[in-house]
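User: Hi! I'm working on a homework problem where we have to compare a predicted structure to a textbook description. Could you give me the structure for the chain below?
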Amino acid sequence: MTSSLYECQVMHRRLKPEQKRFDYRIFMLSIDLDAIPTPTFLSHNRLNLFSLNDADHIDLGHPGGIKPNLLAWLAEQKIKVPPDVKVRLVTLPRMLGYGFNPVSFFYLSKSDNTPLFAVAEVVNTYREMKLYLIDQKGDASWQKQIAKNFYVSPFSDPADAFDFRLGLPTEKLRVTINNITESQVSLTSTIRGHQQELTSRRLLTYAFKYPLLTLKIITLIHWQALKLWLKKVPYFKKADRPEAQTDVLRPHSSLKKDP
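Assistant: Happy to help. Predicted structure tokens:
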């Protein structure tokens, strides 16, 4: 397992109550967590042009970084993995110290590269986090429909469901995430990527090709939300549905009960 990059096209298409589509391009890191690379313009837990920071991912307080904390979360879910399990993280890097990862993906495999399952790590604009185990094997992919129970967008009910379809990350990256409302797809998001070699030269090229990458993404999210709000699309206030927000990591104050 070697680390690499994926140059990706992202698409979001809302089907109801308001039809809307927008597309943009990004690149994502694909990192072997047992051998995190640090070429010239990429650092681990240090400021650089691009960086991978443990604080942006699952943290249950265990030492050793992202992988031990992910394995601890799996143990809490009663999921057993081999002691020599491999973990690949596909995620956005921080750029010039600023990071925002709407979704990252952990792909777990045996030491002989036999796929085991995947975990989606979803983060909202409140910086809350929730993990979803995706362990139903499909045709060259992992699939699962699972209760969302997480506040991702004011225009989607946190009591909706996610339908994940994750292709195995090889030369191509193929991800589809559907938001299911009352048994129908209300929003579909896709990531389609092509694998590239992880080199210092390519990272420097991407700094110009994708300037202010993570800042651009969170700006797009708020801009699209503003347009829906101006169209008076019905929305959910976060504090109104605490019962539909469960097993949330780094919970916002709206979820913390008064003593």
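For your comparison, note the following. The chain has a mean pLDDT of 91. Residues 4-255 form one domain. Good luck with the assignment!
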